Amino acid sequence: MRKVLFVDRDGTLTVEPSDYQLDSLEKLEFFPGVFRNLYNIANKLDYELVMVTNQDGLGTPSFPEDTFWPSQEKIIKAFKNEGVTFFDVLIDRTFSHENAPTRKPGTGMMTKYLEGDYDLTNSFVIGDRLTDMELAKNLGAQGIWINTDADLGKDELSANKEETKQVIALETTNWQEIYDFLRKQKRNSLVTRKTAETDIRVELILDGGGKSDINTGIGFFNHMLDQIARHSGIDLSIYAKGDLHTDEHHLIQDVAIGLGEAFTKSLGNKAGIERYGFCLPMDDCLAQVTLDF
Q1: How high is the pLDDT of residue 113?
Q2: What residues in the chain have per-residue pLDDT under 70?
Q3: Is there a catalytic annotation at residue 8?
Q4: 97-106 contacts: CB < 8 A, separation 24 or more?
């Protein structure tokens, strides 16, 4: 399942103008550190980037289209030139008093993410308003609040402020802190596999501490799986039972399949991972094993 970063525009990617309307190139100023860190997020982490922005009355006399698009196109091009591409750009044009379902914190523009194959529990909304955090709550995601002005947008927040604040996983004004926080999110997976011969459950946390809980019914196999966790630093829990009265190979084979599937799920799109290998002869004996995760 894919994870998403729903990123606000004004006050998050760009500095919010004093009149809260980015309607000229002269007002365009990018948020400090956003290019370097959003590049790292886009290229080293496993998130789809989606821009979500409210633009009050876009297309009306108070905010003509021709004053909006030069800045918007400049923003998109600037990020693309720095290696950052947004999978989607969602713009709501309504005023706050219209209470449109498409306006943040409403989720009307994000139906495909609610109904599609997305891991919203481990996705984030990044924004400078508490309404962005309420959007995170409405999506079932988590919030990263760029709190440059604690009073900004509070009048738009729903009555249940405390419930909204509970989804805030990080409060900061620094994009480097956002990247560091996202980089440390645990990559985990749970795989179950049941066949005529075996019943397997594998739980894997890549960014763990080397803990293991292994029970396969084969003592030496338990020991070897424990070594994977101990020396790699992952947390690994494996429960397996099978037709050991016949042979061990069915159970060992299916545990290996389950472990491989768990690694695949935890690694996601494998962003930031490079190939690495070495060959080590010991005690006049050379054994070679090639694993391609």
Answers
A1: 96
A2: 150-161, 272, 279-282
A3: yes
A4: 103/54, 104/8, 104/52, 104/54, 104/131, 104/132, 104/134, 104/135, 105/131, 105/132, 105/134, 105/135, 105/137, 105/138, 105/158, 106/135, 106/138
